[in-house]
Amino acid sequence: xxxxxxxxxxxxxxxxxxxxxxxxxxxxxxxxxxxxxxxxxxxxxxxxxxxxxxxxxxxxxxxxxxxxxxxxxxxxxxxxxxxxxxxxxxxxxxxxxxxxxxxxxxxxxxxxxxxxxxxxxxxxxxxxxxxxxxxxxxxxxxxxxxxxxxxxxxxxxxxxxxxxxxxxxxxxxxxxxxxxxxxxxxxxxxxxxxxxxxxxxxxxxxxxxxxxxxxxxxxxxxxxxxxxxxxxxxxxxxxxxxxxxxxxxxxxxxxxxxxxxxxxxxxxxxxxxxxxxxxxxxxxxxxxxxxxxxxxxxxxxxxxxxxxxxxxxxxxxxxxxxxxxxxxxxxxxxxxx
Length: 337
Known about the structure:
This protein is mostly helical.
């Protein structure tokens, strides 16, 4: 008898397939060429990809690890970057300030998780409240504006391909190489699969937690700074990035239980969500109706992304010798009472 073989499709495939389907539907509804739609999707998606990559690292570190502070840190990073850049006249200093804010907010989460022993979701929720309070304070009478040079770069799309999207794509490849080719990447994924076993093997648990949460905070704040420079800073700028960042990570194939990270899938999930928002707005669906449809589509993609296998045909060979079958049969193991 030939054993059943499972040929697994890469987990990121379904997110890209869903994005393509939504893109085709958009073409059919709009009745126009899709170059503008693709350009717009690749213009907006990189900000969600940056937040998603940080969330992916956190979730890959094992069950229970999640960063719910990314939305408020996103907004705070945007406000701080614009304020510092406006005062100093340097967009680079503004981005540096946003990175510092991301590190500071993530440090609060890390200390709460490692030393106060607060569950990650509660610790990052507390950090979110702190970031929100600071954002509301900064927003009073806020009149800063984004640097024109940085804004021009973020809007620059040679041959219809946003330059910023290429930068984020290169960064995504770097993250993928770190996870696959470096010792730290292997140790982090092993830590996410089995924490206790990884610790016995010499993996530093505290170092892993510190790195993933600090990275998530920095990427969220930096993405917020860039998004605010592209449009305008706002206290509610990052509100949509919490649930969306979690959804694109899971849709992209990263396991919520930890141990598997799929950076390429974050791109697929982000494009899927951006294109879906555009399609639903195009056909004039209400906000409630959009959420219902999003929920069903996400569940469908998650079902496929969970590893729907393509099963090969099961072939059985007829037996020719009963005696040989008896000799090759495995012994029966009886339970002892």
